[in-house]
Amino acid sequence: MIVAFSVTPLGVGEDVGEYVADAVRVVRESGLPNRTDAMFTSIEGEWDEVMDVVRRAVAAVEQRAPRVSLVLKADLRPGVTDGLTSKVETVERHLAG
């Protein structure tokens, strides 16, 4: 499964990069395949391990922010691995063709 999620601290002002970095650090330390862009962090693995990482990433932000917003989108597709890479490669192949 692939989960794309965004954790946003609320009530801490406009500059939230250091808070978001706390969440991304949890994801990267998990050892699961992941990718971060300007809007979301995507992580790939089994349901329980991915959801545990999301929970811990939110908890990391909760430690310093009075309120936290979580946006989450999941692609549950049994038997697919390396979807973070293969999905993008498929689109790029079509663009090149």
From TrEMBL:
Domain spans labelled Thiamine-binding protein: 3-92
Organism: Streptomyces monashensis
PANTHER family with a match to the protein in the record: UPF0045 PROTEIN ECM15
Family membership noted in the UniProt record: Belongs to the UPF0045 family.
InterPro entries noted in UniProt: MTH1187/YkoF-like, Thiamine_BP, UPF0045_domain
Residue spans crossing the bilayer: none
Pfam families membership: Thiamine_BP
Domain of life: Bacteria
Protein name per its UniProtKB record: Thiamine-binding protein domain-containing protein
